[in-house]
Amino acid sequence: MLRIAIVGGSGYTGIELLRILKLHPQANVVAVTSRKYAGHPVEEVFPSLHGYSDLLFTKPDVTYLSKSAEWIFTAVPHKAAMSIVPQFFDAGCRIIDLSADFRLRDRRTYETWYQAHTAPEQLDKAIYGLPEIYRKDIASAQLVANPGCYPTSAILPLVPLLHSGIISSQGIIADSKSGVSGAGRSLSMGTLFCEVNEGLKAYKVAEHRHMPEIEQELSAAAGKPVAMTFIPHLIPMTRGILTTTYARLTEEISTDKVRVVIKEFYKDSPFVRVLPEGTFPNISYVRGSNFCDIGAKVDGRTNTLILVSAIDNLVKGASGQAVQNLNIMAGLNESLGLDTIPLCP
Amino acid sequence: MLRIAIVGGSGYTGIELLRILKLHPQANVVAVTSRKYAGHPVEEVFPSLHGYSDLLFTKPDVTYLSKSAEWIFTAVPHKAAMSIVPQFFDAGCRIIDLSADFRLRDRRTYETWYQAHTAPEQLDKAIYGLPEIYRKDIASAQLVANPGCYPTSAILPLVPLLHSGIISSQGIIADSKSGVSGAGRSLSMGTLFCEVNEGLKAYKVAEHRHMPEIEQELSAAAGKPVAMTFIPHLIPMTRGILTTTYARLTEEISTDKVRVVIKEFYKDSPFVRVLPEGTFPNISYVRGSNFCDIGAKVDGRTNTLILVSAIDNLVKGASGQAVQNLNIMAGLNESLGLDTIPLCP
Amino acid sequence: MLRIAIVGGSGYTGIELLRILKLHPQANVVAVTSRKYAGHPVEEVFPSLHGYSDLLFTKPDVTYLSKSAEWIFTAVPHKAAMSIVPQFFDAGCRIIDLSADFRLRDRRTYETWYQAHTAPEQLDKAIYGLPEIYRKDIASAQLVANPGCYPTSAILPLVPLLHSGIISSQGIIADSKSGVSGAGRSLSMGTLFCEVNEGLKAYKVAEHRHMPEIEQELSAAAGKPVAMTFIPHLIPMTRGILTTTYARLTEEISTDKVRVVIKEFYKDSPFVRVLPEGTFPNISYVRGSNFCDIGAKVDGRTNTLILVSAIDNLVKGASGQAVQNLNIMAGLNESLGLDTIPLCP
Amino acid sequence: MLRIAIVGGSGYTGIELLRILKLHPQANVVAVTSRKYAGHPVEEVFPSLHGYSDLLFTKPDVTYLSKSAEWIFTAVPHKAAMSIVPQFFDAGCRIIDLSADFRLRDRRTYETWYQAHTAPEQLDKAIYGLPEIYRKDIASAQLVANPGCYPTSAILPLVPLLHSGIISSQGIIADSKSGVSGAGRSLSMGTLFCEVNEGLKAYKVAEHRHMPEIEQELSAAAGKPVAMTFIPHLIPMTRGILTTTYARLTEEISTDKVRVVIKEFYKDSPFVRVLPEGTFPNISYVRGSNFCDIGAKVDGRTNTLILVSAIDNLVKGASGQAVQNLNIMAGLNESLGLDTIPLCP
User: Between 20 and 30 A from B52 (CA), which of A261, C204, D23, D140?
Assistant: First the structure.
């Protein structure tokens, strides 16, 4: 059994980690921390987990946690993460960090979009935790930087096509639509029910922090710098991201050929489902699961490739992907504890 | 492995059976029927099940099905059920019927609320499939009548209290609020998105067919005829029923004592969760799970007991309960394949 | 033109007052206050009002406001209201207070449910602003206490029946379902989108502060003290309250007769719509309007009368009713500026 | 008073016309037809209109209608429209057709995307009813083709920019998100509540019939043929369309300059609101109103202009725009009966 501690467990990614790991046959969550709820039973804070276990939230005590657990999930906000991750790192724990602090390999890029980086040593050692691309590096990593939710949905369909040169590295546009749980569980006017319900807006137009993260991975796939356009939208639903991506084709190609390229690239990746021609993803079809569904269509009139991808932002976009990384790091079957069926309707 | 056929598998209870049984370690779904989709792959009709299996929908051929499977789930509308169930019965299959056709033990009551009953012999042999009450009879039954969704939510909190005499058998009122999936997947103006969204209504006021079903079980618990008031409401959400029940207390009693009576009654029932005093159920806390959560409060000012119960109508209110019955009938652990954690948020 | 100031205009009742008064041919909003947004244009805080006017939010300066306006709407929280209303009162303004501070005629009752009352003199002079009951007193009042949203929905269907003696004053149960806007616009975990969406719960079970307000008016109608049961529920929708009320009949009576009694009672009240027999209210049918729709059904089996009433909590449950009171106080047509058609779908 | 008949009044655009025209000081709806509901009171079919009028639905009798009314709104499906519009045309009525049958000026384009056109004579005389562009022609038209909902949201922000040459006519991408009411009120599996709620999908990817309509107007503005990419998405909300448009800039230009060009172009158009720099539209801010809100941002990194536009699809995208056309045709103030404030929240 893997002894696991969750640091920062009272947000939506925290409860999702608890939900997934409870059903994982090799996982044993020995501690979960929350400054706010320290001393309170997990099942009191999250009544959906009533009867789940006797676990109480504790304060984050690194010394205690690194003795009790070999595996650490850090689910705290960026900045907080880079102050605590090095301590677990030095204590020899293996860490999956769900924050943004170790995702950008280039320190200057990080500091442009976030703030000064206080753990540059660990930054150099962190592996970007997108298993479909970096499976091998993840296996031996001590620190994995779990990808952002938007980037997961945008990168997966594009990498095989940039890699093969089918699409241009210029003019890529990703129009993402996200459910509200991606904004987290902290209090904010913008995520009150009545501010979101029956509304729809674009936000952080062409200035969202996930853009450099997407560009980093697209550049790696293209073998040259990629600048792209990324616009997120907030949708009145709880879970899910649907990203519609527009790319310029470099050659005449059929929709089916595009599908085959993507499918071949992910033939050993159990969580990528390339849908049949004419079928497009729907957030309903991935809810509660670790799948990333992908659909494609060539628009010959304008020489544009349209890609549609869908994930559950709390699973493949956060906690499910983190457990997928755990499995790979621990030498287990990548799907262990993650082979659930989407909850539909 | 249990060889299982699902008859009428293209509705919401059908897809939910497929979802649950896929994760069930002893279940093997060998056939699923749908007149409408015969010949089509299950994963084409329900893209959430993409990659699930090679199963195709077939036409309902009783001879073939009763040879291929020992266990039959009938998920067809009432009236259709009573025409097909006797055939499986005579072929020696064990049947869990999700329709209303075998729930009312009294044929005349059935015929008052529905239509002429064409399978009275099987009616006499059917067991009402509420495991928390009839576990023992279910174990040896050949035909189990899976309860209605509203009745499940209303009966469970009341039975221990009527049984113990704490509440009067007169003046019971159940005010139920249901998500839209309870209305099924057939086309109807009333379940179009724009007719339901941001709306809320009472319907079939004091004339819903689930009322005699509730009364049957309350009468059995009270040991005398119970007439009660049942009003269903339609809520703009997909899954879940929350029932608020009002009963008259026969004695002065504390909230805690009421809780203890219910808790004691269900001490061997893994899916009933009696919440701590001051905590009340929320549909969010049971979604996707087989739990029935119950909260209680004594209102001394008016001598009224208020009970609140919540279930996922597609799980504990239909397909999950059906699998729970399967487990009991097959001599397996009652929770097998059903120990999921609610999907929250 | 009526010169009007809105004190506390940045919540949901504030924006609703602005919306309604803008279309009111005799209203001129000369000032709107908000400590939080003082100095900011109204249209910046509420972009739906873009192009509406040049109005800025100001700090609440009683001296200035009572010189600039003759009519004051106070839309601040209870406790804050009773500290500011007396100042406007003494300055000779006529006031419609949307808080709870002047609704309970009995000071001790107020102090039991809220806190010490610091403006008992004004309390004695305040008129309960339910126009359908107190139209005449409202006309000459200097201070009107605008009713709570739940009470409006619960009191209107019951008063004619208690008044006529058709129902017992004992055993009345009101099961209310409310949209989330009733909880206001302040930050709270419980009204975050993901905490509410696809969920449903009862809250403040038998201990909500609107209960004594309902009882006060039911007692007045019955001519004797009424103790009743009131349970509010939170529904994943923005606007609307639907209340299902259960009462014990004192005599054998038809549904139609009940309807006639209610209809006759409200024959001069333009905003009460008694629906045809067999038709029941739906929140969708009153959204954005000042209507209170009422449906009724006698359940002869249990001698129970079921009443269903629906309002838009921000209109008839708050700001629309406040404008209705304004019209009456100012000697205008009660419906002026309120004859909108519900927005459906 | 304008005597008006609505042909095909039982869908969502029908009820919205009834709602808007009821508040219009110069409109008198003398007849409303529906084959399905002929003989039934309007207020029975649409209980939100309870108390509205004594109007009954009638069968569509052209002779009777063209005698009773001078103004005809046809709100029937395409194909049905072109069979009935010529009859009203020949009878001398002035017609606002809400279908697609008279929107495409080029008959061959129509026949490519729809079917054979059976009223080519009227097609030549129809004016495309986007008042902000064709106000003058609309004023004297006998037949106005009311634009589609998606086209309205996509065309308005682009026309001034194509006209001025700031953006390229190549590579335009419109990513539209629509509420469900745009799909109409007829029965279809795809618009059932549980099929839509908490889901999100792209549909008719690069093959929606509104694409040629958008291209027609963009080509007119650009003065040369425009081929563009248009992808609609279905969002779990009732009303509203938000369109995010991506265009290639032909010159270096600031966001503010772009805003000024749009604002200047629409300076006499009361329903176009160009939002301040940094503010972007939200469907919540236009709900129930005839506004089209527009926001813009130049992304210098990729030389891309991002436009965001929002409308209420049933108002500015259908019935409100139809009434705006009526006002212009009748020589009235363009805003008459349409100066409502958006219902927010």
Answer: A261
Contact C173 B246 (CB under 8 A): yes
Tell me the average pLDDT across A121-144: 98
Q: B201 to chain C: which residues are within 8 Å by CB?
A: 242, 280-284, 308
B135 inside domain: no
ipTM surpassing 0.85, yes or no? yes
In a domain, B279, yes or no: yes
- Total structural domains within chain D: 2
How far apart CA B284 and CA B271 sit, in angstroms, is 16
Residues D31 and D78 in one domain: yes
Q: Per-residue pLDDT tens for A221-249? A: 999 999 999 999 999 999 999 999 999 99
The predicted model scores a pTM of: 0.97
pLDDT digits (tens, 9 = 90+) for D217-248: 999 999 999 999 999 999 999 999 999 999 99
Nearest to B176 by CA among B246, B259, B99, B273: B246
Query: Residue A263 maps to which CATH number?
Result: 3.30.360.10
- Residue A282 in any domain: the answer is yes
Residue spans of beta strands (DSSP E) within chain B: 2-7, 27-33, 57-58, 71-74, 94-97, 127-128, 143-145, 173-178, 201-202, 229-234, 241-248, 272-274, 292-299, 304-311
C48:D340 CB<8 A? no
Q: Give contacts of B 136-175 with C, CB under 8 A.
A: 171, 173, 175
Question: In this model, does residue B69 exceed pLDDT 90?
Answer: yes
pLDDT in tens, A4-41: 999 999 999 999 999 999 999 999 999 999 999 999 99
CATH code for the domain of A59: 3.40.50.720
The pLDDT assigned to D273 comes to 98
- For residues A159 and A302, membership in a common domain is answered with yes
Interface contact A48-B285, CB threshold 8 A: yes
What range does the domain containing C39 cover? Answer: 2-124
Q: Residue A101 falls within a domain, yes or no?
A: yes
Closest CA to C84 of C141, C185, C11, C5: C5
Average pLDDT of the residues in D13-34: 97
Structure tokens at B120: 């009275």
Say whether both A178 and A258 belong to one domain.
yes
For residues D98 and D89, give the distance between their C-alpha atoms in angstroms, rounded to a whole number: 15
* Residues in CB range of B16: below 8 A, 6 or more apart: B314, B315, B318, B319, B320
The residue among A106, A124, A142 that closes a domain is: A124
Q: Express each pLDDT in C66-119 by its tens digit.
A: 999 999 999 999 999 999 999 999 999 999 999 999 999 999 999 999 999 999
Q: What is the pLDDT of residue C53?
A: 83
Does residue B166 share a domain with residue B85? no
Nearest CA in chain B to C175: B175
- Kindly state whether residues A82 and A206 are assigned to the same domain: no
Question: Does residue C35 belong to the interface with chain D, where contact is any CB pair within 8 Å?
Answer: no
| Shared-domain flag, residues C107 and C55 | yes
Spatial distance between the Cα atoms of B322 and B304, rounded to a whole number of angstroms: 34
Do B206 and B282 sit in the same domain of this protein? yes
Tokens describing residue B223: 């040991």
Say how far apart CA D249 and CA B147 lie, in whole Å: 63
Q: Does C187 touch chain A if contact means CB atoms closer than 8 Å?
A: yes
Is B194 labeled as catalytic in the residue annotation? no
- Which chains does chain C touch, 3 or more C-beta pairs < 8 A? A, B, D
Size of interface A-D (CB pairs under 8 A): 154
- The reply to whether C179 and C120 lie within a common domain is no
Q: How many residues does chain D have?
A: 345
HEC assignment per residue over A267-315: CCCCCEEECCCCCCCEHHHCCCCCCEEEEEEEECCCCEEEEEEEECCCH
In residues, how long is chain B? 345
Average pLDDT of chain D to the nearest whole number: 97
CA distance C199 to chain B (A): 5
How far is A103 from C21, CA to CA, in rounded Å?
A: 52
